[in-house]
Amino acid sequence: MAELIVLCVAAGGLIGAPTRFLVDRFVADRVERDFPLGTFLINISGSFLLGLLTGLDFAGNMPILVKAFVGTGFCGAYTTFSTWSYETVRLLEEGDYLEAFLNAVGSLVIGLLAAGTGIAVGLL
User: Fold this and answer.
1) Mind listing the pLDDT tens digit of every residue in the chain (124 residues)?
2) Long-range contact set of residues 17-24: C-beta below 8 Å, sequence gap at least 24
3) Please, which contacts does 109-114 make with residues 24 or more away whose CB atoms are closer than 8 Å?
4) What is the count of structural domains for the chain?
5) pTM for the complete prediction?
6) Which domain holds residue 9?
């Protein structure tokens, strides 16, 4: 069973990483701003998805292989703390203090709200 779980994590990551890239490029091609909107939307949607998975798991409706594939694999590769950190520092270095603050605090607050909403929906 452990080997199958590892394969599910790897398969989810194989899909999550290019999805992150494509979503970020899609947003960047349509919105010209210094604010990293692509990363912001990716992390918020990933927080909601992981929250939803957690809510379903709390309700007893989530098989272990789905948790491994979607939660650890896909969400782990799709969301990105390192890019969020880098982009916040880049905004600070460029003197965009308000946007850096909005990125840092907004991502945290809205990400937590998205995760909480996902959990609530999953518990329904």
Assistant:
1) 899 999 999 999 999 999 999 999 999 999 988 899 999 999 999 999 999 999 999 998 789 999 999 999 999 999 999 999 999 999 999 999 999 999 999 999 999 999 999 999 999 8
2) 17/77, 17/78, 19/74, 19/78, 20/77, 20/78, 20/79, 20/80
3) 110/44, 111/43, 111/44, 111/47, 112/47, 114/44, 114/45, 114/47, 114/48, 114/51
4) 1
5) 0.91
6) 2-123
